[in-house]
């Protein structure tokens, strides 16, 4: 049978058209009748894409973009039936606990600045200069904290790792977990006190050969989870991992 919308051949057991993603309703015979009626309106041979035996993806590309639901249906259609479903394992962001070190350093500089301000209290230009420096310091620390807290997102699935950065302009980097070669995590003094840290991921992905993840809460457990996801995916695909 043929789809009455795009003319693509449809298997008898299909619930959606593989070309345009249109939902097929009614019994198989009713669908076939509607498809034949639609094909007669376009001519006995069907549309040019069907005549040339074009790939359904090519026919779909000529159609309007469609809704998000239609795009998701197309993704589900082209997915290999032997592939396992993608499941989210972890989601995180830049932890506010990782900002305590920055706040402590800023507070120390502010205290020094206030001490100098009282020391040069009689000099007007020095007083305004110190106040301007303290305001600039507060602004830089505030913007940095907002950019880290609101502009950094992480997400791990059983197949891919996503790193999103930016507030007004969002950039998303993706790495297949199977491409991860090695990783390490580190913590400074303040980070060890609050159980946060950073993770460095090395991969064979040419676009993202090294990825630095900052402000990770429970960093040791997250690093172990990423490593286990990598091992599970490689074992599933029959790839060898050297034991450390």
Q: Roughly what percent helix? A: 40-55%
> What's the N-to-C terminus distance?
56 Å
Largest sheet: 4 strands, antiparallel
**CATH topology assignment of the largest domain:** PH-domain like
What is the strand arrangement across the widest sheet? 1-2-3-4
- Rounded average pLDDT: 77
Write the layout of secondary structure elements.
Layout: H1 28-42, H2 48-51, H3 56-61, H4 68-78, E1 88-93, H5 100-119, H6 124-151, E2 152-157, E3 160-165, E4 171-176, E5 180-186, H7 189-194, E6 196-203, E7 210-217, H8 219-236
Antiparallel strand pairs: 1-2, 2-3, 3-4, 5-6, 6-7
What tags apply to this protein structure?
244 residues, alpha+beta, PH-domain like, 4-stranded antiparallel sheet, 3-stranded antiparallel sheet, 8 helices, 7 strands
Could you characterize the architecture of this molecule?
This protein has 244 residues and is α+β, with helices and mostly antiparallel strands. It folds into 3 domains: 1-79, no CATH class; 88-95 and 150-236, Pleckstrin-homology domain (PH domain)/Phosphotyrosine-binding domain (PTB) (PH-domain like, Roll), CATH 2.30.29; 97-142. Helices cover 44% and strands 19% of the residues. The chain is built from 8 helices and 7 strands. Strands 1-2-3-4 form a 4-stranded antiparallel beta sheet. A 3-stranded antiparallel beta sheet has the order 5-6-7. Strand 6 (196-203) and strand 7 (210-217) form a beta hairpin. Residues 27-63 have low confidence and may be disordered.
């Amino acid at each position: 049978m043929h789809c009455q919308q795009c003319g693509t051949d449809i298997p008898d057991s299909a619930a959606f058209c593989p070309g345009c993603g249109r939902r097929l309703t009614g019994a198989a015979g009713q669908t076939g009748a509607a498809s034949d009626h639609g094909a007669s309106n376009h001519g006995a041979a069907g549309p040019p894409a069907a005549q040339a035996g074009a790939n359904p993806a090519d026919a779909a590309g000529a159609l309007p973009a469609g809704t998000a639901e239609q795009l998701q249906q197309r993704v589900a259609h082209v997915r290999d039936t032997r592939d396992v479903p993608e499941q989210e394992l972890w989601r995180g962001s830049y932890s506010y606990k990782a900002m305590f070190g920055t706040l402590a350093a800023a507070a120390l500089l502010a205290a020094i600045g206030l001490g100098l301000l009282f020391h040069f209290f009689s000099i007007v230009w020095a007083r305004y200069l110190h106040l301007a420096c303290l305001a600039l310091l507060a602004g830089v620390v505030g913007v940095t904290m907002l950019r880290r807290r609101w502009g950094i997102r992480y997400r791990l699935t059983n197949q891919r790792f996503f790193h999103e950065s930016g507030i007004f302009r969002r950039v998303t980097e993706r790495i297949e977990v199977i491409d991860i070669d090695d990783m390490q995590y580190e913590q400074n003094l303040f980070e060890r006190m609050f159980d946060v840290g950073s993770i460095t991921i090395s991969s064979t992905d040419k676009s993202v050969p090294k990825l630095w993840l900052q402000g990770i809460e429970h960093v040791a457990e997250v690093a172990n989870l990423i490593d286990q996801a990598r091992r599970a995916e490689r074992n599933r695909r029959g790839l060898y991992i050297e034991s450390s």
